[in-house]
Amino acid sequence: MIAMKRPALGFIALCAAFSLCVSPAFSEAPPEPEGYRLDNYHAPTPATLKGATVLDTPQAFELWSAKQAVFIDALSRPPKPEGLPKNAVWRDPKRFDIPGSIWLPDTGFGELSEPMARYFEQGLARASGDDKAKPLVFYCRTNCWASWNAAKRALTLGYRNVLWYPPGADGWEQAGHPLEERQPEPRE
What we know:
Blueprint: H1 2-22, E1 53-54, H2 57-65, E2 70-73, E3 95-97, E4 102-103, H3 114-128, E5 136-139, H4 145-156, E6 162-164, H5 168-174, E7 180-182
Parallel strand pairs: 1-6, 2-4, 2-5, 5-6
Antiparallel strand pairs: 3-7
């Protein structure tokens, strides 16, 4: 009887050790905040966005293939590195996006300056053809709050068909879908 208990204890210990190793991969997504995310933008995102439809990669690809929605990238532009000599030439890294999308960088921060809020509103108006019922798919990268914030902001602006694609360009590329180089929409 003692011999039977030891293998069982060993099995239980093995299962417990295994669960400690894999549990972060299956951990629950954080809850939705009341307002916008204000810091640590590259972190796990909620599984939901109240008022919006959350898409997985096959759903996003289907909408894109049928040209049934406008795709909007909210990823921020990388800042110029600190300590760069004054006479050094700085070139922004290339951004590769879902083909046909528009890039409205820096519009996914929790707080926007008045000029940035205007840039976002005008960008959405152009992208939707001033149609607040037009389907708009917001994305950036996996574990990126910028797209969540931007989609939430679109809802507050009265857009009625807001879709959020959490895997972003990373998930799109991992699925083998095409990307193309993208430049940000001009700021006026």
